# Entry
Amino acid sequence: MELISLVGLRETPLSIDEVTASVAEPKAGGTAFFVGTVRDHDHGRGVQTLSYSAHPSAEAEMRRVMEKVVADTTVAGRPVWRVAALHRVGELDIGDIAVVVAASAAHRDEAFDACRRLIDDIKAEVPIWKHQDFTDGSSEWVGAC
# Structure
């Protein structure tokens, strides 16, 4: 059984149903999700447009992060049954889904822990950058070095 059931970067809208189906497992007693959406503000400023760019290695890096989360949780004796992660790239509108991660496990605590770790580690380690244009005319890159 492949523990990483779905991983990818997409220019098209993300499907929560696709992610749900990918982590379904009869042994799982809990499934946890995180759905990140584009909001209309950031740090007190109105967001007008937003886009995500990714390094060519981003999908491989996302898989590496997911493998580490699965390995770490299994070593800790809290097996995760399946994990999934999808991230949008390109131009997004306010309210669009930007990222979906999910984890299924025997119990809810393990599912929540793995899901939280997935999104935190993906945001910290995967080379995906957000560019925001604000309603005041300013703009910024987030996550770019």
Observations:
- The radius of gyration is 16 Å.
- Residues 4-37+58-127 form a domain with the Aldehyde Oxidoreductase; domain 3 fold (CATH 3.90.1170.40).
- The chain has three helices and nine strands.
